[in-house]
Amino acid sequence: MKKRVLLLIISILMIPTAILMALFLVTQINSISEQTHLPGQGYTGYGAAAAIILYLCSIVTAILGLIFMGKRSAKVCRAAGWVQLAISLALIFPLREYAVLFLPPLWLLTVLYLIGARKKLDRSMFQTTR
Q1: What are the backbone angles phi and psi of residue 57, rounded to the nearest 5°?
Q2: Quick one: which of 31, 62, 84, 122 could link to 14 by a disulfide (CB 3.0–4.6 Å)?
Q3: Closest CA to 91 of 52, 55, 47
């Protein structure tokens, strides 16, 4: 019951957060791409564009969480959450120091989403038969 409530709250919270962070990234992408004259900074603009796409795709993950919240087999929710977390971790390399600024809200919400969407442990697995 507590995990369902957590999944509901995080899924609802993920939608406006994703929209606001995507808008924030859109406003910052021009200044990020202007700093590509520094050595090793050539891909930060592309990383910011990929982060915008990832934030918009996290809305789909949140909607999946709302759809499959009451179902026992929420494998789709967990798979979408793990893919989102893996892509966001891969974006550290192109974003470099901007990853500290742009990605922590996504990481926090995704980890809490995965906690809420995890599979229940079956108590009968741990009981011994006599």
Answers
A1: -75, -20
A2: 62
A3: 47
Angstrom distance (rounded) from CA 130 to CA 128: 7
Q: Which of 72, 54, 44, 58 is nearest to 113 (CA)?
A: 58
**Does residue 29 come out as left (phi exceeding 0), alpha (psi in the -120 to 50 range) or beta?**
alpha
**93-115 burial: b if 16+ Cβ within 10 Å, else e:** ebbeebbeebbebbeebbebbbe
Alpha-helix runs per DSSP H in 1-130: 2-34, 44-67, 75-90, 92-95, 99-102, 104-117
Q: In this structure, how many other beta carbons lie within 10 angstroms of the beta carbon of residue 127? A: 8
